[in-house]
Design a protein that fits this description.
By secondary structure, this protein is mainly beta. The protein has a single domain, classed as Jelly Rolls (Sandwich), CATH 2.60.120. It is 7% helix and 37% strand. The strands form three sheets. Strands 2, 4, 5, 6, 7, 8, 12, 17 and 18 form a nine-stranded antiparallel beta sheet that branches. The longest helix has 8 residues. It is globular and about 45 Å long. It starts with 7 loop residues before the first helix and ends in a 5-residue tail after the last strand.
């Protein structure tokens, strides 16, 4: 737990006004994470051969070890989870998707992983000190060609074809892998600013609107608008709550964190 010598009670007493605009959560990479279970439990992210959805995250400095940006899983059945992650192999940076239908089957036709190295077209170095936006778009239709897409800083960088398996999810974490029930690991030491979930597969042009030249915007003004939308540390939330200001109100919660991890950093 990242207490930094400050009690939870003291951190909760911070003025809400001090956290209202242009803040972010700074995760320590040890046990810090944002619990978003109600989003997964709503079914919006199910891989059921019918649903289409998109998840966007703004972050910086996730470290050079394998670290999870966000992930979802279910309460029963080993290896029934998916995640977006960053990793380095030497100086080679990578952003990737990993999806399991069960312990021996993948969600993609090509296997469990779809990864984009920094040297690839539209690849990024995730730990270069800059803010980045990673968007995953999904059309969960069975066997869909190009059903899974990774966009990095507004540009299409990786495309995967779906397999024939299904999955549904009950738990969601930002900054940690959740798998095999509600168990967490592979924590990210990132600064995370904005997180959004759409109940549609966004087009390339719509993803570019989220990127907006490297500046976060109020995504509620986009078409379609996100069904879940979070600006961590902002919007008058009383820490450790993360208020959902999207069209469906489903609040998240910072875990193992203190008010000192609400920082005055933001993509601009």
């Amino acid at each position: 737990m990242s207490m930094h010598g400050v009690t939870k009670a003291f951190s909760a007493a911070l003025s809400p006004a001090s956290r209202f605009r242009e803040k972010s959560f700074k995760l320590d990479g040890v046990e810090d994470r944002v619990e978003m279970d109600a989003v997964a439990a709503s079914g919006v992210l199910d891989w059921d051969h019918t649903k289409k959805w998109t998840v966007s995250i703004w972050f910086k400095d996730p470290g050079t070890d394998l670290a999870t940006l966000w992930s979802v899983t279910r309460s029963v059945g080993n290896f029934r989870w998916l995640e977006m992650y960053t990793n380095y192999s030497g100086a080679t940076g990578q952003v990737g998707f990993r999806g399991y239908a069960d312990s021996t089957h993948a969600l993609l036709a090509s296997g469990t992983t779809l990864a984009v190295n920094d040297s690839a077209t539209n690849g990024i170095l995730p730990n270069d000190g800059n803010w980045h936006n990673v968007v995953l778009t999904v059309d969960s239709a069975s066997g869909a060609t190009g059903g899974t897409n990774i966009y990095l800083d507004g540009l299409l960088a990786g495309t995967g074809n779906n397999g024939v398996r299904q999955n549904d999810f009950e738990y969601m974490k930002v900054g940690a892998r959740v798998s095999n029930g509600n168990n967490t690991s592979f924590y990210s030491p990132m600064v995370v600013s904005q997180f959004s979930v759409y109940n549609d597969e966004l087009s390339a042009a719509q993803v570019a609107n989220i990127w907006a030249g490297g500046r976060t915007i109020d995504e509620r003004g986009l078409t379609p608008a996100p069904v879940h939308f979070y600006r961590y540390g902002n919007d008058g939330a009383v820490f450790p709550n993360a208020v959902d200001i999207g069209s469906v109100g489903t609040n998240g919660r910072a875990e193992n964190m203190t008010g000192l991890e609400v920082v005055a950093e933001h993509p601009s």
